[in-house]
Amino acid sequence: MNDVFVNNITICKCKNCGKYFIPKGSTRKDVKYCDNPSPQNPNKRCIELGASKMYRNSIKSDAILNEDYLFRQRFLNKIRRSNDTTVKKTLRNKLDTYKKEYSIIYEKYVEKEISEKDVISWIKKQGVSDNGNKGNSKK
Q: What is the pLDDT of residues 24-38, one digit of tens each?
């Protein structure tokens, strides 16, 4: 661990910017990110960006989790952009169905019943659609 103890005060190293800091309140010893402006975006603090950055990096390192994450983001964007409440409800139901089916498919992958390639192929075949239009309509 990168924590240092000086006179009963914990000094931590930020996992985002690499600077040392004293956690606020000194009651928590597991703080990973400082409250300083983030090097990625000076308008945000490390504590705001650090966890999401680490999460995204962990997803990028796993092909299945990355494909699932991208699929869900496309689907959620489609829901957010829709002005029709009926379409939104239909898309939410499709996303819920996808999540249930994905958990079954992923469990089969974990139990080595299907390959990583099969899972990724299955995700890509799901498509993000509404009113019968697959994927995004940009050409």
A: 765 566 788 999 999
CB 126 within 8 A of CB 71: yes
Q: How many CA atoms lie within 13 A of 70 on its CB side?
A: 15
Residue 2 confidence class, pLDDT cut points 50, 70, 90: low
pLDDT in tens, 66-116: 999 999 999 999 999 999 999 999 999 999 999 999 999 999 999 999 999
Domain extent listing, the chain: 4-58, 63-126
Which string of DSSP letters, residue by residue, matches the chain?
---EEETTEEEEE-TTT--EEPPTTS--S---S-SSBPSS-TTSBHHHHHHHHHHHHHHHTSHHHHHHHHHHHHHHHHHHH---HHHHHHHHHHHHHHHHHHHHHHHHHHTTSS-HHHHHHHHHHH---BTTB-S----
Residue 87 CA to residue 93 CA, distance in Å, equals: 10
